[in-house]
Amino acid sequence: MHQHAYEGQCAAAERTRRASTTSPIRYPKLTLFALALGTFAIGTGEFGSNGIIQLFAADLDVSIPVATYAITAYAFGVVVGSPAIILLAARANRRTLLLGLVLLFLVGNGLSALAPNIVLLVVCRFIAGSVQGAFFGAGAVVAAYVYGPGKGGKAFATVMSGLTIATIAGSPLGTFIGQSAGWRVMYWAVVAVGLLAGAALVAWLPRTDELRGGSIANELSALRRGNVWLMVAVAALGISSIFAVYTFIGPFVTDAARRDASLIPLALAVFGLGMAVGNHLGGRVADRHGHRGLIWGYGGVLVLLVLIGMAGSNLAILLPCLFGVGATMMYAIPTIQVRLTGFAPDAPTLMGALNLAALNLANSLGAIGGAVTLDAGWGTLSTVWAGFVLTAAGLLLYVVTVARRKPEPISPVLPDNTARTHPRPKIRSTSG
To answer: What are phi and psi of 63, to 5 degrees?
Structure first.
């Protein structure tokens, strides 16, 4: 999903290793597996929350619109917390940073399982969300370093497979656990996966000074570029429709289509499968056809939203449309990420966090927009019309402002730690 957002980071990590050492990394496949397991845990916790929204709303005695504040809080955790963590930990070793993020992830989800009211649940979801962008960014650097020169994109694609699997399997499974054993048990299951990921990272992440951080001056310079903020706005507005649908899949199935709640995991899996297909196709389009992926993706999702809004109470129409919304929106996302990174190629780490911040701001906007339409009494399926308005605004903004603007030239600047490499660097990897 976020592979292209981190290509600059991957290239920097590759250059660092090429300039400093040719020593092999022990257990490279296990290291990548550990990182993927971490993204799987994060994705399951994020998307799984959407599947159990009705459960914790009922248990905590709040309405579904109020319950969406927990979803919104997670998104704001990514928007605010992740960039802050990246800047505060700019010089920290990526291994140390990743392990610290896992610990924070366990705290956020463990406390979510114990939250006695909606206020504390909102706070805990913010804590859990603050991990996401920073983990993806640091994981991208480590993955590219482990794979070595020329394979950074492949390495990070492997790591991000954990998030894709979370949308297809982790979220439906988490929803099933929540329905069968209670929503709190779902969060404990996420904690269990997080513990496994943490143990794997301790065992298989390489121990080397070459993974230490560097200066953030180049990263911060990107914040002065207008094109960057325009693309963030395009992403936040346009992608919001995916969350105006995904957040409310449970009510769509039970209230609009009037089917048993046991079908919610199936609907989530269908949506996740669409996301995986769209991501695969969208990556190719983004690399070959400029901004077509964004325009085609946004345009396609607008058509599907109309279909859901008018006929989504029919399950035979709802399920294919859920697949289509996931596919068309993910078809657009790689183009957004390529364009954003292209406008600031010398600030890849912060662009990675900003990219995730934009997507999670979209999560918040979609959830809030849907909650507004529900509060207004317009019906369960009315949430898609909020998504329609937001995505149409994003598409219009893109066409009018940045569609034809050229990316910045790529500067061959190496990270700070490249200049500090040792004649014979020592690379250590543990096995437990």
So the answer is: -75, 165
pLDDT in tens, 280-300: 787 677 667 767 889 999 999
Confidence class for position 213, pLDDT limits 50, 70, 90:
low
- Going by the DSSP 8-state scheme, the letter that residue 77 receives in this structure is I
Q: Tokens 């596919």 sit at which residue?
A: 327
Report CA 266 to chain centroid distance, whole Å: 21
Query: Measured in whole angstroms, how far is the alpha carbon of residue 268 from the centre of its chain?
Result: 16
CB atoms within 10 A of CB 210: 24
Residue with tokens 């937001």: 390
- Quick check: helix, strand or coil at residue 237? helix
- Considering the chain, what is the average pLDDT of its residues? 81
Q: How far apart are alpha carbons 408 and 148 in whole angstroms?
A: 26
Beta bridge partners of 174: none
Helices (H), 253-314: 264-288, 292-311
- The rounded distance, in Å, linking the Cα atoms of 155 and 29 is 10
CB 23 within 8 A of CB 425: yes
d(CA 209, CA 59): 48
**Which 3 state secondary structure label does DSSP give 428?**
strand
Highest mean pLDDT among 181-195, 208-222, 245-259: 181-195
Provide CB contacts within 8 A for 247, sequence distance 6+. Answer: 50, 53, 68, 71, 363, 366, 367, 370, 383
Give, in degrees to the nearest 5, the angle at Cα 273 between 272 and 275.
65
How many CB atoms are closer than 10 A to CB 262? 13
Structure tokens at 378: 């317009």
pLDDT class of 429 with cuts at 50, 70, 90: very low
Q: Can you tell me the distance from the alpha carbon of 166 to that of 155, in angstroms, rounded to the nearest whole number?
A: 18
Identify whether the C-beta of residue 31 lies closer than 8 Å to the C-beta of residue 146.
yes
Rg (CA), the chain: 21
Residue 247's SS3 state is coil
Rounded CA-CA distance 294/402 in Å is 12
Nearest to residue 332, comparing CAs of 389, 271, 394? 394
For residue 411, pLDDT beyond 70 = no
Q: 287-337: per-residue pLDDT in tens? A: 677 678 899 999 999 999 999 999 999 999 999 999 999 999 888 877 776
**160 Rama class: left (phi>0) / alpha (psi -120 to 50) / beta:** alpha
